Amino acid sequence: MSEFQPDIWRLQAKSDIRGLIEALKHPSPAVRRRAAAALRALGASSAIPALQAALVKEQITDVRTAFILTLDALFQQEIEEDSDSPTDQYNRVVRLIAQLNSRQPERIIYAARRLGELKEKIAAEALVLVFHNTDLPGRVRLAAAEALLALESAPIEVALLGALRSADWRVRRNAAAVLGQLSADWAVEPLRAALSDSTELVRRTAQAALKRIGTPEALIALASAEPPSLNPVLFLPAPEAPPSPPETPASPPAPAAPLSPLEADAPADEEDTQPTSTVG
After folding, report:
1. Does the residue 221 lie in any domain?
2. Helix crossing, 105-118 with 124-132: angle to 10°?
3. Number of structural domains, the chain?
4. Is residue 127 part of a domain?
5. Alpha-carbon distance 132 to 240, whole Å?
6. Which domain range does residue 199 map to?
7. 163 or 88: which carries more pLDDT confidence?
8. How far is the CA of 267 from the CAs of 36, 258, 263, 270, 273, in angstroms?
9. CATH number reported for the structural domain that contains residue 214 in this entry
10. SS3 (DSSP) at 147
């Protein structure tokens, strides 16, 4: 028996938003894709939460694309209202979460920053997805990390960003080292800032981290930074040899013993003074 196929065109013609939302869960990828397109055509902003939930679970690339396009279009048509009512606040958060699925990096960055300012923890899951999406530019993932810190919902890797701003230079140095070990390309800008840290070891560790990350952005950051000066603690001059002790002056020679009277009258050369005999 064939599976029931909802009539998407009929649902769209009747503006049956609930029926189209149910179709987003249908086993057929084609049905899910067409349901998203119908919601987009109807401008059904009330379907944004359902589309967001469906996008998280969707595995088929072209269906994900349809969901993203629909969310992007629905967000564009929404006009934010300045209201403090809980309903309007919730709607703003939902729209911003939908914008995280935009294909325009600047819009994702804007949404992430606004969500961080609003401090609505319901956005944490969507922000974590953005942060872990390695297909996004590093600056986009950094914006998501900043928002997660503001929401106090940061995963361990993101918590390193907060550690990089610690008042303790040891914590800053360790955070830079771990970010380098993780090849955290999203952290290039914070590490670039750490190249101007007041502590020499932090600057050197940030330099090593950027070198290890090795992306074009990281190499540009390294090239634009002044080379760090040698660490006076690590590069001490060789110790000088102790000075030699002063030489002790030589003792004067002992005076010669005085000569006896006989020795004084003796000739200088000890020659034989006996007369030689002659032969007669």
Report:
1. yes
2. 140
3. 1
4. no
5. 55
6. 155-230
7. 163
8. 140, 17, 8, 7, 10
9. 1.25.10.10
10. helix
In this prediction, residue 244 carries a pLDDT of 54
8 Å CB contact between 71 and 48: yes
SS3 category, 107: helix
- Per-residue pLDDT, 248: 54
Q: Is the pLDDT of residue 205 over 60?
A: yes
- Separation in Å, CA 137 to CA 103, 106, 215: 11, 10, 11
Residue 47 belongs to a domain: no
The mean pLDDT of 164-187, rounded to a whole number, is: 89
Q: Which residues, in sequence order, are CB contacts of 211 under 8 Å at separation 6+?
A: 180, 218, 222
The dihedral through the CA atoms of 148, 152, 156, 160 has a sign that is: positive
Is the entire prediction scored with pTM above 0.90?
A: no
Residue 176 lies in a domain: yes
Q: In this structure, what token pair is assigned to residue 12?
A: 């769209």
96-100 average pLDDT score: 84
Side chain identity, residue 100: L
What angle do the packed helices 86-99 and 61-77 form, to 10 degrees?
A: 140
